[in-house]
Amino acid sequence: MEHAINRYKNTCMHTLHTYIIHTYTLYDECLKKGCFPKKCKKVKIIPIRKPGKENSTEVSKFRRIGLINAAGKVLEILLINRVMHNIYSNNLMNPNQYGFTPKGNATNATLAIKEYIEEGMREGHIAILVSLDVKVHSTLHGGPIY
Prior knowledge:
alpha+beta, 50% helix, 12% strand
């Protein structure tokens, strides 16, 4: 009986090892060739009603949530990590970029603006601040619509 259990464990370990090697090779080839397989691009769109709009059937009262398959999500994360590593290791990120960055947020951006204005006022400069809130809509088929 113990021999059968050991043989089963060895078979499982060999299968797992083979799966890991094939999965690694697949992702590595995708990154090397710069391809994102069509099967990984398939997204399921789930409409979710916005808070407080539970009784409405208007399309504008829903948020679209896109669920990507697990293989596509892993490849997406690998691509993002590779791009971000390149940006940070080559010092390509603008120091004034606060959104979508590690430890970057609206509070840090606000404090930077405040410090910039205070420094200018100490030097006798005049400050004018214009704030824009740009809403970007995306389509299901392509890029953003401004």
